[in-house]
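Human: Cast an eye over this sequence-structure pair and say how the chain folds.
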Amino acid sequence: MWRWRQEGRIGSILMPDVVFADGSFDVILDKGGLDALMEPGAGTKLGTKYLNEAKRVLKSGGKFVCLTLAESHVLGLLLSEFRFGWDMSIQAIASESSKKSAFQTFMVVMVKGKMGVVQTIKSSLDQSAEYCNMKQENAVIRALGNENIIRESYSSGVDVLLSLRDLQLGAIGDLKVIVPGRRRQFILGEPETSLYCYKAVLLDAKKQTETFVYHCGVFIVPKARAQEWLFASEEGQWHVVESAKAARLVMVFLDSRHANINMDIIKKDLSPLIKDLEPGNPEEEAPIPFMMAGDGVKQRDVLEEATSEITGPMVVEDVVYENADGDQGSMPEKMFRRLVFGRSSGLVQSEALLIRDPHSDETDKKNKNASATSKKRRNQKKGSKNSLRIDHSFLGSSYHSSIISGLSLVASALSASSASGEKVSTTVIGLGAGCFPMFLRGCLPFVDIEVVELDPLVAELAKKYFGFSVDEQLKVHLGDGIKFVEDSVAANHSASNGSARNSIKILVIDVDSSHLSSGLSCPPENFVEDPFLQKAKELLSEGGLFIINLVSRSSSVREMVVSRLKVVFEHLYSLQLEEDINEVLFASPSERYLDINNLDAAVAKLKDLLKFPVDVESDIKKLQRLR
């Protein structure tokens, strides 16, 4: 079909018993073989197989010379198969005037180059009009023009969305080789080869080490989480690669086309597609794992689903985690109540521990003696939910414990206020389920707490499901947190009339962002912009702490927030949680009230004040001053 010459030997691809090694030949000449394999209606399967074999046995710099009538289906296959890594030229072959045919023969020459390089096609067709079938040549010229437009877009540096076939053809280089830091978006799957198509990103780990658990892995991103910074941004995706411990990771994004499709079907559909992206020698490697962001929930009971115009969809649910306590004995599993915002489904907004209500135990005992056995079982099962209540002495979020521990920075002032009976003004922006302010009220009885919540429905759910309640010590204001701080500053100026007030204040920002693609999950960006920071500084003008729960996987975003705080506040401290992405920042405009010279003594003072246990010592060991 095509022929070659090597050391005086002549062979043919049609010899099935002859297998040549990769890169065996300098030149391959095809004299109508491709045209014969691709008779109209025969499809491209044989032609594709034929060209793949020709490419395999050619040396780097070798030539594939194809004589063809360049019919549209044949030329289309040549142009696409030799798009990446081949220098391609075409010209018409002049025929003797006495042997003129109705069809023009073309010579297409492909020179094997570097994979991934795209070059425009060289053509001399416009110079050979006197020899050509003009209609046939014009069709070829149009096809070459369209192909060169495609090639120019690939070589322009724009991140063109490739297909899986493009990758197989070498659009981003040799897929069998890991290229550290290589990242490319592409479409995985085609109607002819898979049930569905998927948007995907191929990522080769930036650092190649011997500690990889997997040579290749697949990470499936559900539609609900696709807009989160961790998955939508390049920086976030590299975090996922590092966490996955895979030399190559293929991130696959699900969308509305995959709604209500069983995950096993998705994995089965993806498996043969991913095989084509596997580096190295697949036979020597372990099976490719499928990973997906999950929450480790063993049991889930949805109590209410609600939708707010401000926050969007919300879910209140009771959950039991897998191996929640690590205890496989007879002890009951712990159950938690969670508030989850749909806009950030990867993050649980609030979590509380459910414990048995001792008052309900008394009722159960009475029912036990008064009910028939069968009826009793039904009643106990039905009433088991009612026998549980929220434990407000428990903090479900470790960053909340860190906020409490960070109060060691002002422990002496807190101790003095407690001893004198003076209340410490504490403002918390962001209610959530109300777990933190309820803990704060019980743990530090001398603080006056004002919570500001933008969404009335959030406050309603906190009261209905999480035992949140208000009194003289704990109040809730519905409205905008930034405006509340501005109004508080104005009210303080009016009340003081220029006289100094010896009162410590605490301002806590614990609000999630609705714009997850920005890389800043908490707080919203306007809470870390200069106008609000200046108002926060004014509020704490007599001394105190400005506390921010910062959640960002982006180092650049984190540095931006820190630099802004440094400009406004003289003192800035950080408490980074090792097991989480939260970082708690503590800022103060002056040294007044700060216990920065003897933190050990300050920790001891704070612990004397706390009514609930908090591991202050462990947290404070991680406290760092940011200069």
Summary: The domain at 398-494+502-625 is CATH 3.40.50.150 (Rossmann fold). The chain is about 30% helix and 25% strand. The longest strand covers residues 297-308. The chain has a mean pLDDT of 84.
